Amino acid sequence: MEQQIIQEEKKPKIYEEIVKYGLILGVVFFVLGLVSLYLMQSADSFIVMTMVYPVIFQLLIPLIVVIFICKYLRKQIGGYWTFKQALKSIFLVFFIGWLFSYGLNLVYTKLIDNTITEKMQDHMKENFVTFMKKQNVDDEKIDKEVAKLDEQFAKQTQLSAPTVFKNVTIAISIIFVIALIFAAIFKRERPLTFDSFPA
After folding, report:
1. Which of 36, 46, 109, 189 could form a disulfide with 127, with the two C-beta atoms 3.0–4.6 Å apart?
2. Radius of gyration of the chain from Cα atoms?
3. Which letter does DSSP use for residue 114 in this model?
4. Which residue spans traverse the membrane (predicted)?
């Protein structure tokens, strides 16, 4: 009973921490994405541009940050997390982080530097064509693949209501699945004691 009261008192603080670290995660995602974009513009290798940089800046570094946040939040609640508590907390942190990062990215690419995405896409196409030619792919097939890239880029830059709704829906689904995985990893049930058994 006493432990439950302590946990109830911690709830407001925990939600403050969830929002705070969600915003921090959003800034981290945004900065890493921005660094990745600029590095991709200067990359001479298609493999480095499409695999190495994304793995480092969109997977490894964010993973380290997320692990730190999960451990910190679990510590804040007393060192123990039921699966439900972990899932809820981690999902909220991830969703707030993604939403904030998405907003910052829109502001930057639409109001501050509206050419960065186009430059990256042009550079990616150039490296792609160079890579395909090195693989002795004929020009006709290269043109078809470049056309597919242009189509994908055009879809990514669309900001219509259905597109935004689709992106948000997909993001929520992915975030929930990832949160499930992290909740399963970081949950820590309170050990059973004699007091836990009914008299």
Report:
1. 46
2. 22
3. T
4. 21-40, 46-69, 90-108, 168-186
Q: Tell me which residue of 135, 95, 93, 104 sits closest to 37, measured CA to CA.
A: 104
**Averaging pLDDT over each range in 11-20, 40-49, 93-102, 144-153, which range is the top one?**
93-102
pTM of the complete model:
0.78
Per the CB < 8 A criterion, the answer to whether 82 and 189 are in contact is: yes
Please tell me the distance from the alpha carbon of residue 4 to that of residue 14, in angstroms, as a whole number: 14
What DSSP designation does 197 have?
Answer: S
Two tokens, residue 31: 């900065």
Spatial distance between the Cα atoms of 141 and 2, rounded to a whole number of angstroms: 70
Residue 188's SS3 state is: strand
Band of residue 6 on the pLDDT scale cut at 50, 70, 90: very low
Is the Cβ–Cβ distance between 99 and 18 less than 8 Å?
Answer: no
- DSSP string over 48-113: IIIIIHHHIIIIIHHHHHHHHHHHHHHHHTTS-B-HHHHHHHHHHHHHHHHHHHHHHHHHIIIII-
Cα three-residue angle 140-146-149, rounded to 5 degrees: 150
Residue 123, helix vs strand vs coil: helix
Look up tokens 């959003």; give the residue: 26
Q: State the Cα–Cα distance between residues 110 and 139, nearest whole angstrom.
A: 34
